[in-house]
Specification:
4 strands; 187 residues; Alpha-Beta Plaits; single chain; alpha+beta; 4-stranded antiparallel beta sheet
Length: 187
């Protein structure tokens, strides 16, 4: 079933929202956030993914990204497949206090779609929106950078470690990014 947010132009710059099923707060744990960051880094180096903005929230990820080689859907699909497999494995093998509940939710969601195997970690949608103007790019970049501020996690966007706001503020960051030509501002 199409949600109307499919990636049509595989090399265009997109704003993506990738969410965990049932909005489960998985990324409250560093081990799972690090799997996401390592996988994004791999996609940058080996699949040609260009990231211009990102934030890893507790239950979803926002990206501003493109694929100059024209394989954005494939790259996002592979990213989701790899991260879901590795995060679920880490949940199963680790000391996750919510292990049984989380695995139950992932298993329940998998049963809702015939294309799933045992677990479904990510929703099938990527909520992909083409960024067609500089103003729209700026708006989406500010939105994703301010997500942790709106959630009450930090006072300033660049204080959130798992965000490209740190790159734009010229601070150390987990990922290298390609920059959108914007004026950085702190709110």
């Amino acid at each position: 079933m199409s949600t109307g947010y499919q990636i049509q132009d595989q090399s265009a710059l997109h704003y993506l929202t990738i969410q965990v099923v049932d909005w489960i707060d998985v990324f409250t744990r560093q081990i799972y956030r690090d799997i996401v960051i390592d996988s994004l880094r791999y996609c940058q180096k080996n699949k040609g993914l260009q990231i211009f903005g990102y934030v890893v929230m507790s239950n979803h990820i926002h990206l501003i990204a493109n694929s100059p080689n024209g394989h954005l859907s494939e790259t996002i699909r592979d990213f989701k497949k790899f991260t879901s497999k590795n995060i679920i494995s880490a949940i199963e093998k680790g000391n996750e206090s919510r292990k049984d509940w989380m695995l139950n939710r992932f298993e329940f969601n998998a049963k809702q779609h015939s294309r799933n195997e045992r677990y479904q970690f990510w929703t099938h949608e990527n909520h992909a929106i083409v960024l067609f103007s500089n103003r729209f790019m700026q708006e989406k970049l500010e939105y994703l950078h301010n997500n942790p501020v709106r959630a009450g996690l930090v006072a300033k966007p660049e204080d959130f470690l798992y965000s490209s706001a740190r790159n734009y503020a010229d601070l150390d960051s987990f990922l290298d990014i390609a920059f959108i030509d914007v004026k950085w501002k702190t709110y």
